[in-house]
Batch of 2 targets.
Target 1
Amino acid sequence: MLAGKRVLLIIGGGVAAFKTLTLIRLLRERGAEVVPVLTRAGTEFVTPLSASALAAEKVHTDLFDLTEEAEMGHIELSRDADLVVVAPATADLLAKMAHGLANDLASTLLMATDKRVLVAPAMNVRMWEHPATRRNVAQLQADGVIFAGPTEGAMACGEFGPGRMVEPDEIADAIAAALEGGPLSGRHILVTSGPTHEPIDPVRYIANRSSGAQGTAIAAALAGLGAQVTFITGPAEVPPPDGVTVVRVNTAAEMLAAVEDALPADAAVFAAAVADWRMAAAAPHKIKKLGAGSQPALDFVENPDILATVSQRRSGRPRLVVGFAAETDDVIANATAKRARKGCDWIVANDVRPETGIMGGSENAVHIVREDGVEDWPRMPKHEVARKLAARIAEALAAEAEA
Ligand code: CTP
């Protein structure tokens, strides 16, 4: 039952919009409140009056309705909901979402919301298969957007193939799963991500090439399965996903402190590329050139190993600790030794030789090293690795709970 849940339902401009009227009825039968928003194109397919009558709510249609802004701003409208649903999600709406455009009420609500977003795409098969839509879908999945469909079938345009909106009862089930929590609901999971910056002096630092893409995708996938995620990130290129608690740090020491503050957790995934060394003492003033022939001597000390520290805790160790191993040679042998040395449960090992294009790229080919053996996963987009890993974590925690 969805009693007490509020769904903000954005109806895009597609033939499937008529099915969304049935979706409103089904959601209300399950006890949810539905607040409909029609895009301008959406109003060409269903009337505001029919949506409003079925929802028993005012329908919102235009961003620049000043009285409405006085009654309820678009920020409140987007945050009052428990879930934002887009059905039908047209190619245009997906593109706007993927690129962060906000030039009408629907796209502004999608940008302003702090809630999860579920989309039910509907479009012609060629549009669904177009490389631009493929890119947008991959981006939205990486951002943690939940997809219901599309399916294959005969379309209003006479063609056949994927792109057809799933039936309203399936969308209602996906909404219920998103609102009632997935297999990780009630679990707290820590994720570290991104590089660390270790200061040399007030203007210089030591860093590495980690973009934070893999850690961000893992946090989004875990949140997508209902976990409460604490996302501890160094200064990454990729912005943090929605629906997680973000803790920003710069140095390895700050990252360790943030991790210890965030415990206890059911599981922890250490995807950060932590700098191994920091300056023994960062200079308080900018280091000046020393004159011809003299270079400053940089004196390093080793940083704390966050993964090893947490893995070896006597009390309060997360039940599942997952580390990463970025290797350039003997990937499996090095990762197996690293797992034993650090004391974690799984190591996600990858080959970061520059020719693999993995570091800073969008794909990853990983090996999961566990006590009972090694699993090789084929090369796939980082968000797919994330989804698969999140599903494995959910299975492992569920199996533990049963044991
Ligand atoms: N890690 C960490 N704290 C550190 C260094 C690494 O938590 N100070 C974690 C990373 O987040 C990753 C794992 O340890 O999960 C392995 O990182 P990697 O750089 O591959 O290993 P190192 O311990 O640095 O070993 P080496 O450089 O010798 O390969």
Target 2
Amino acid sequence: MLNIIICGAPGCGKGTQSDLIVKKYNLKHLSTGDLLRKEISEKTELGVVADSYISQGNLVPDKMIIDIIEKAVDEQPLESNGIILDGFPRTLAQAEALEEMLNERNKKTTVLLDLKVDTDELVNRLLKRGETSGRSDDNLETIKKRLDVFEEKTAPVSDFYKKLNKYAVINGIGTVDEISARITEVIDSKK
Ligand code: AP5
Ligand code: MG
């Protein structure tokens, strides 16, 4: 059973690489950003609240996210070989909640993959995507805010997993295939 976390700054390639990992290892993809955007597009109560945070580049409250993940973890299809968490945990409180949640289910995190990409490249990727994505947070002002929030709130999550000896840094620059090969090497070494 693999329970992989893919982490890194906005635009580092979490979603792109998750799609490849899901296929290769038959995992369930849990992207908190995608789950929230679905709620927004369906104009649910949760979606309206989430949009007020996302469009400003802020994180949505921990409790909201933890409840969503807990439900999704329990809805895992029997035939999958585990999960890939994309964009979660993003705060220390979320990391602690995840570890507790997995422990209670006799599961454990395999590894946190930390995709490293320099700021200029992140901004370029997101501005380019913003030309077509329709995402309310893909504009320069909100991108800058997302990067600041990442440094302040999410970077400490890496230290948490370093202490657990479940941390791997991945160079996130290169072609999608090159990066995927780097990730595969790490996952295969943990199986
Ligand atoms: P989320 O949806 O997770 O957004 P993000 O972290 O800002 O990251 P992105 O999805 O923008 O980028 P990505 O790393 O997935 O990269 P991608 O593969 O798309 O979260 C959005 C918001 O939701 C948050 O700000 C927050 O408000 C809220 N939220 C979500 N989770 C939360 C949580 N746990 N707690 C609280 N709030 C939460 O790639 C980016 C672009 O680059 C694409 O166009 C892609 O085609 C391109 N690209 C990919 N790889 C390469 C490459 N190798 N070379 C060149 N271009 C590439
Ligand atoms: Mg994404």
